[in-house]
Structure formats: structure tokens, C-alpha cells
């Protein structure tokens, strides 16, 4: 996306490339390349604001937005509704401290996906990042509280104000993931887990790295 503003802080040009409209969810050309489509991000947000004004949705949020993309919306002339949430990858190996602080300053809640790491499917996951739940620190802290490394990882994010959305199809594991509110991590333990940060994503979405609005080229 390229955004140009005049002295009145109005968007003169704001074109974002999405996927070409049609029946294909991720359309490709004859050479197997993804087909992108130029849209206006500010105009898209205004359409979502109209949905909220009409009572069709309760809140508006975004996903995988970096700071620059969030600022584009926050600085939009005539903004009526700010994003209330930003869904991004967030876990002890990718703690997102700068983005988390920026969102806190603007009352945007971080919703952390992959809070337990991810599968080891090399077709879409960065397997260079070691399995999160096997981390020795998380395992040792879990033993102290009679919890699993997964529960410690979830508690870490919840305790720092991040909403966690662990995925599971197992009823027992879903119940297990809820049992994180009967213990608290100490300040020293929180700092130790924060120090595990490797700034490595499990989900890089490299298949779309040529997208003009690929968000992960920026630092945060």
C-alpha cells in the first residue's frame, strides 16, 4: 500500500492490493502466481464502520496489521470507530513487545493466535522455530504449579493482557486450556518467559510475501 496525505492529513491516495474478486478464494494465474486486486483500505474501513452504525456488528477489528497499517486507520479523516482488536501471532517465542505497547497506547486489544506454537507442517509453518511446548523453562515452571507447559504459555499471555485463542478439537484439551486462572506467574517468571523471545514467527505466510501489503516486512 502507498498512502499520500496532504497538509490537511487527508488521504489523497490509499491503494491496497488484496485478492482478485471471484469464486476462487485464492485466485492464481496460469503460472500459479496469486492474483491481487487493488482496493482502498480507508474505503473498506468506512464500509465496516457503516456495518457497525447499522447494528450489524458489535465491534470492528483487524488481523496481522503492523503499526503503519494501524496508523493509517487511526489517522483516517472522519474516523468513527477505531479497531478494538488486532489478531496477530503472539507467544513466548514471539512476544510482540513493540506492537503490544503501541496497541495498548491506542486501547487496541492484542488477540494472540498460535499461543501454544503451531503444528510442524512445513508447507506453511516455519519449522526452524523449535517446538514451543518442549521449552525447558515452560516445563519447569509448569512443574512448580502442577501445570503443563501449554497452561504456562497461556497464563503468560493472559497475565500481560493478551487474549489467547488456542485451537483444539479435543474437549479434554479445551477444558485443560481453561484451567489457567487458579495460579499466577511471579514477576521474575514473567521476565524469564519474556526473555525466551526469539523474534521468529511460526506463521510467516511467505507464499504472499510479494503482496504489496505483506505486513511482516516491517519491524512491527
TrEMBL record:
PROSITE patterns: ALDOKETO_REDUCTASE_2
Domain called NADP-dependent oxidoreductase: residue spans: 36-197
GO MF, any single term: oxidoreductase activity
UniProt superkingdom: Eukaryota
PANTHER family: ALDO/KETO REDUCTASE
Annotated family: Belongs to the aldo/keto reductase family.
Protein name in the entry: 3-oxo-5-beta-steroid 4-dehydrogenase isoform 2
Gene source species: Scophthalmus maximus (Turbot)
Amino acid at each position: 500500500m502507498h498512502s499520500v496525505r496532504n497538509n490537511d492529513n487527508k488521504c489523497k491516495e490509499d491503494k491496497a492490493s488484496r485478492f482478485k474478486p471471484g469464486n476462487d478464494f485464492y485466485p492464481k494465474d496460469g503460472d500459479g502466481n496469486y492474483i491481487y486486486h487493488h482496493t482502498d483500505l480507508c474505503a473498506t474501513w468506512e464500509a465496516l464502520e457503516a456495518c457497525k452504525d447499522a447494528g450489524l456488528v458489535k465491534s470492528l477489528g483487524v488481523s496481522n496489521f503492523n503499526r503503519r497499517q494501524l496508523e493509517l486507520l487511526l489517522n483516517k479523516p472522519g474516523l468513527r470507530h477505531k479497531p478494538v482488536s488486532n489478531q496477530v501471532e503472539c507467544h513466548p517465542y514471539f512476544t510482540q513487545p513493540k506492537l503490544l505497547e503501541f496497541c495498548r497506547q491506542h486501547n487496541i486489544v492484542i488477540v494472540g493466535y498460535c499461543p501454544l506454537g503451531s503444528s510442524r507442517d512445513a508447507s506453511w509453518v516455519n519449522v526452524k522455530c523449535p517446538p514451543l511446548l518442549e521449552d525447558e523453562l515452560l516445563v519447569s515452571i509448569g512443574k512448580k504449579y502442577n501445570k503443563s507447559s501449554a497452561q504456562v504459555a497461556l497464563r503468560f499471555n493472559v497475565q500481560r493482557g493478551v487474549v489467547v485463542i488456542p485451537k483444539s478439537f479435543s474437549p479434554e484439551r479445551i477444558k485443560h486450556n481453561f484451567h489457567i486462572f487458579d495460579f499466577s506467574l511471579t514477576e521474575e517468571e514473567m521476565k524469564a518467559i519474556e526473555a525466551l523471545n526469539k523474534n521468529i514467527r511460526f506463521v510467516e505466510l511467505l507464499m504472499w510475501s510479494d503482496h504489496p501489503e505483506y505486513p511482516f516486512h516491517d519491524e512491527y
